[in-house]
Design brief:
Its main location: membrane. Helix content is 32%, strand content 23%. The protein has 516 residues and is of the alpha+beta class. It is globular.
Length: 516
């Protein structure tokens, strides 16, 4: 294990040297977008879908959030919600009806005024089950949407639902014009219309999506930018080089190993924001021998998370004890994870029905050196247990589609919560129908998640969520590795760039100053 980590350190040092060489070359260069209000963000995930209800990855969601808006919106610190397209709301005495007053004077990108008719259409579309709607599970408690008048709607629920206000901030239930503004769903998906600060200008799939300023945006004086381009660049080193050379103003998620050199680059700084980010290992519990809890526990015990923090993240992360983010309501600090202990790992494997030697494949996202280094650490760690691990490098879109299809043994992902309530994470990650598709099923976990969502007593909910976290830690259907802050390499000319704890970019406030 230590030999493997030393090798990774050597690999990382070479990467630092390469980035520093680029830094020196870039110091005298001038931004190609200097003196303009056109922002370029180099990012690791492609935007593939702009229809709110079907947008799946963070590459989709973070673009959707610039074009569309929701009734409630997340507070910057992730502690709850505040008014969005709804200015106020009132809950009935029995907790089964909520009445929302809508913001007046809001226009869609086509110039039409938003009314209750649009809200009803959007919520009904989001809550109607369909195989390609990954977030529909958040809205199952909504039984009916009634239009009271042009600016008032009432949501009737099947039962009291504690996460409702947080659920309504989810991008999947963004407000669209009724009947897709006369377009077919397919046409609307390619040319979406929202109420957000930006609208889609140009979209070249596999390359970039350019969003342009909404001149009729309801928040006066915003946005300040003329355009935002999310440029898909899979390779982390290339993204860093683009920011150093001024070809992009923001590098989304620079690697930890590159941070030191980026900080030394003229006109570039690194911003760190509190985040709900968790790096974790997804195990396919349907496949033998991963369907054996003792095998999974052995694999968890064999991982030295503290060494990973040092060797892969250079201290810019912390070991994760729970599969719930530490910056999210419900996180149980007292969760006892399966800490690194090779003797316990071998003892667990001895209890299993696994053969003495078996093989697994880890799917690794291309262009991501941190995930590559993690995969190598896991490969060496599990080798000590007699597990032959093969690394398979795939593009990010394929890694995610394979997860949906259940076509994997082991994969590594980064999870961030999209809303301020843990119900999304609990259902998405741990329920029997979880979208991570690990195949894990535990009736007690399902019962606790369902019970907590219907309970208005926060302390009772926290107790239920703590029990879920301990069950997951004990049975290891998924293995938490590290909690990460949100790191961004940003050129100094970019002003007021902020990212919420839940990962949402506050780009309407951003401006670009003349570069010195």
């Amino acid at each position: 294990m230590m030999k493997a980590l030393r090798m990774l350190r050597k690999f990382a040092a070479v990467a630092v040297a390469a980035v520093m060489m680029t830094s020196v070359a870039a110091c005298g260069s001038r931004s190609t977008a200097a003196d303009t209000q056109d922002l370029v963000v180099a990012r690791s995930l492609e935007t593939t879908d702009m229809l709110p209800a079907t947008g799946y990855s963070n590459g989709d969601i973070w673009a959707i959030q610039q074009v569309f808006q929701t009734l409630t919106r997340n507070k910057t610190d992730g502690s709850g919600v505040e008014p969005g397209l709804a200015t106020s709301w009132k809950k009935s005495a029995d907790g089964k009806s909520w009445t929302f007053s809508l913001r007046k004077g809001v226009k869609f990108h086509n110039g039409k005024t938003m009314t209750a008719k649009d809200v009803k259409f959007s919520i009904d579309f989001a809550r109607t089950a369909r195989d390609d709607k990954p977030w529909q599970f958040l809205f199952v408690a909504i039984r009916n949407v009634d239009i009271i008048d042009d600016y008032t709607v009432r949501l009737d629920l099947t039962q009291p639902w504690a996460p409702l206000l947080a659920d309504l901030s989810m991008s999947a239930i963004s407000i669209m014009p009724a009947n897709f503004a006369g377009k077919s769903e397919s046409q609307f998906r390619s040319d979406p219309i929202g109420t957000g600060p930006f609208k889609v200008g140009e979209w070249k799939k596999g390359d970039y999506i350019k969003l342009v300023r909404n001149t009729d945006y309801w928040e006066k004086g915003l946005p300040k930018l003329n355009s935002v381009t999310f440029k898909y660049v899979a390779d982390a080193n290339t993204r860093s080089q683009m920011v150093q050379a001024g070809q992009a103003q923001i590098d989304e998620f620079p690697t930890a190993v590159s941070v030191a050199s980026l900080k030394k680059t003229k006109n570039v700084h690194v911003d760190s924001f509190p985040s709900t980010s968790l790096i974790w290992v997804n195990l396919n519990n349907r496949k033998k021998p991963l369907n054996d809890v003792h095998v999974r526990r052995a694999m968890a015990y064999a991982i030295d998370k503290a060494a990973i923090v040092r060797a892969v993240y250079y201290g810019q992360a912390e070991s994760a004890n729970s599969m719930l983010s530490k910056n999210l309501m419900g996180y149980a600090k007292e969760t006892r994870d399966l800490k690194y202990d090779m003797a316990k790992a071998k003892a667990e494997l001895a209890k299993s029905n696994a053969p003495k030697h078996f093989s697994l494949t880890i799917q690794v996202q291309s262009g991501d050196p941190e995930k590559s280094m993690l995969a190598q650490v896991l490969q060496e760690s599990w080798k000590e247990l007699g597990i032959d691990v093969t690394l398979q490098t795939l593009d990010s879109t394929t890694v995610y589609s394979n997860r949906t299809a259940g076509d994997f043994d082991v994969a590594m992902f980064e999870m961030t919560n999209d809303i301020s309530d843990p119900d999304e994470w609990m259902q998405y990650m741990f329920s029997s129908s979880a979208n991570v598709n690990s195949g894990y099923k535990n009736p007690r976990v399902d019962e606790l998640i369902k019970k907590a969502a219907a309970d208005s007593d926060t302390d009772a909910r926290l107790k239920d969520y703590a029990e879920v976290q301990q069950i997951i830690a004990d049975e290891a259907p998924e293995i938490p590795l590290v909690y990460k802050p949100g790191l961004f390499a940003v050129r100094d000319q970019v002003k007021n760039f902020k990212v919420t704890t839940l990962g949402e970019y506050k780009l309407s406030d951003v401006s670009i100053a003349q570069e010195q």
